[in-house]
Write a structure and sequence with these properties.
The complex is a heterodimer of chains A (285) and B (319). Chain A is mostly helical. Chain A contains 13 helices and no strands. Chain A: Its main location: membrane.
Chain lengths: 285, 319
């Protein structure tokens, strides 16, 4: 009992029966969890022509690239992925910039009514998207922004700003004020301080916010189906939803291949930037 | 003067952020033209964010609230609360509310319990990292892709029914997505498959913040296994649990993609939640007033739950 040289973090090995039970639970849980992913991979591999109407549980043949290319043409995934890439990169970049400026203003600059501005901007992330849909739809229809790339860009920026602002503001609060003070004493303009001091210092948080917003825009379905309709404007999830709608005619391997393809960018991003995700989640919480 | 007071206020929204920064930044003490210039510059830095949020989010929000008090006749007139009474007498919306409640319970309880269990079981590292990875992976997928995968499992000639038949359980094979309340329940399970990953990550973060001394002290007192978990570890996870409940709850309430791609709320609008009903009423049934009322009610619920868990973190701001 007294020899407790535990690291403290990890629970010490328990008596054998407990450990066996624990490992069994873990293995069973993770196998159940992996099953849908496994079925996705296996059946996306089955050549569409060989698919007999019964799900496969083991790989058979290799038709992945054919399936993907069929999905690519059937649902016009190519332009859709190009659009989503465009929307995700441009609107996330713009939103991070706008949010960083606002964070700079409300944390570092002598602006009045900081609490009011905080809530005004932050409130956007609390509201469900449904509440914006119809007014945006009508306004877009009236101004030619409906079914236009610029219209989707604008709405994705607006959706991304509140949470990006939250991240950037929390980060700005951790910066040492002395540097800014010194720059002010030297007579630097706010504009210069922002670009030459604040942005370089905030770089890591900006990247984290960017990754988060990129994924959010890439995964969006609701605005895609509400504010666009043509296949050369709509984002990728709208195209995937349409492909799913043709499930019985194109066949499961093609639909699954399409789902796999459109998920790759975010899955890769997620695992290469896992650290950022965790930090943004912490900031969110 | 007021600005310097405001700046001195300890303002980090998260008490745990960096306490050493609390003493605050010295206020800009200068007065005169320089100060006025800073004000103007500050407005310039704030304007883009305020414009985007104001014009594209808050203005539509206000418009939706306004619209919810007008009826859906050809010449729309003031309807008072008529659109809101639909929640009491329109069978579709009543069903939608029932489904939303099921989603709320299911999307909180399942990720919470499973997320905590998996985080605790895989906390020690080693090969269990692999298990954790498998559980977190679906979180990287979009709601639409998750729906595609689960449609493949749940459709009538899908993998679930095939597996049941293979085990001789033909009588259990059924149209999973075709009958209420089964379709809502299986979609909650699909949602859990995706959403538990966040809970796992958050609980792991929470487990790492438990001071080693606490665990050592507990061990010295002879606490181990279940007792240690129940009386020592769990109370330390209270803050994280609140966050997990809050994010799962809001996520469940806002869940649209999964339901839309799997069932479009059908068949017969039986598997809708409020998030889907709003879309159906507004854009397909062409009842914008009813749709607006649904959106407002959904917003009220989301704001209320968000407030319940954000309160903790944002109160130091003293709004």
């Amino acid at each position: 009992m007294p020899t407790l040289t535990t690291s403290g973090r990890a629970p010490r090995p328990r008596p054998a029966p407990g450990r066996v039970l624990r490992n069994t639970v873990l293995v069973v849980t993770s196998l159940i969890w992996a099953l849908p992913t496994w079925l996705l991979l296996v059946n996306a591999l089955v050549p569409a022509a060989d698919y007999s109407g019964e799900p496969h549980w083991w790989p058979q043949g290799f038709g992945l690239f054919d399936n993907i290319s069929q999905a690519w043409t059937q649902a016009e995934l190519g332009p859709a992925m190009g659009n989503s890439l465009l929307y995700a990169v441009t609107s996330a970049t713009a939103a991070i910039l706008v949010a960083t400026m606002a964070a700079f203003a409300t944390v570092i600059m002598p602006v009045k009514r900081k609490t009011l501005w905080f809530w005004l901007i932050y409130s956007g992330t609390l509201l469900p998207l449904q509440v914006f849909l119809r007014p945006l739809f009508l306004a877009y229809a009236g101004t030619g922004l409906y079914d236009a790339q610029f219209g989707l860009f604008l709405v994705y920026v607006a959706i991304a700003v509140p949470f990006a602002y939250f991240i950037m503001r929390n980060f700005a609060l951790t910066l040492a004020p002395e540097i800014i003070e010194a720059a002010r004493m030297d007579g630097a303009s706010w504009w210069r301080i922002f670009w030459q001091i604040h942005v370089p210092l905030s770089w890591s948080a900006m990247v984290a916010a960017f990754v988060f917003q990129f994924v959010a825009v890439w995964n969006d379905l609701l605005f895609g189906i509400t504010l666009s309709t043509s296949s050369n404007i709509r984002p990728v999830m709208a195209a995937l939803a349409e492909l799913q709608g043709n499930y019985s005619s194109v066949g499961p391997p093609v639909v699954l291949g399409g789902a796999l393809l459109v998920s790759l960018p975010t899955v890769v991003l997620f695992f290469s930037a896992q650290r950022f995700f965790v930090s943004s989640l912490r900031l969110h919480g | 003067m007021s600005s310097s007071v405001e700046q001195r206020r300890p303002s980090p929204p998260r008490p745990s952020a960096r306490p050493d920064r609390r003493p605050g930044r010295p206020a800009d003490r200068r007065r005169g033209p320089r100060q006025a210039g800073s004000r103007l510059a500050g407005a310039g830095f704030l304007a883009p964010a305020v414009l985007f949020v104001g014009a594209l989010l808050l203005l539509p929000f206000a418009t939706t609230i306004h619209r919810s008090f007008f009826d859906d006749r050809r010449v729309s007139g003031f309807a008072g609360l008529d659109n809101y009474t639909l929640f009491l007498n329109d069978p579709t919306l009543v069903r939608s509310v029932q489904n939303t409640l099921m989603w709320v319970v299911g999307s909180v309880a399942l990720p919470m319990v499973l997320g905590l269990a998996i985080a605790v079981l895989t906390h020690s590292g080693g090969w269990s990292r692999m298990a954790r990875l498998l559980v977190v992976l679906p979180y990287a997928l979009s709601g639409s892709a998750v729906a595609v995968v689960w449609n493949f499992v749940l459709t009538t000639d899908g993998a679930a029914n095939q597996a049941l038949r293979a085990f001789g359980l033909d009588s259990f094979a059924q149209g999973w997505l075709l009958e209420w309340p089964g379709n809502t329940l299986v979609m909650i399970i699909a949602n859990t498959w995706q959403a538990a990953g966040v809970a796992v990550i958050l609980f792991l973060v929470g487990l790492q913040t438990i001071p080693p001394e606490t665990l050592e002290a507990a061990a010295l007192d002879g606490a181990a296994g279940w007792r240690k978990f129940w009386y020592v570890v769990l109370p330390q996870l209270r803050t994280v649990s609140v966050i997990v409940v809050g994010t799962s709850l809001v996520g469940g309430l806002k869940s649209f993609d999964l339901i839309w791609v799997l069932t479009q709320g059908g068949p017969g609008r039986q598997s809708e939640t409020l998030a889907v009903s709003m879309y159906q009423e507004t854009f397909l049934a062409l009842h914008p007033g009813a749709g607006a009322a649904v959106a407002v009610v959904l917003t009220a619920i989301v704001l209320l739950t968000s407030w319940l868990y954000l309160r903790r973190q944002l109160t130091p701001k003293g709004t």
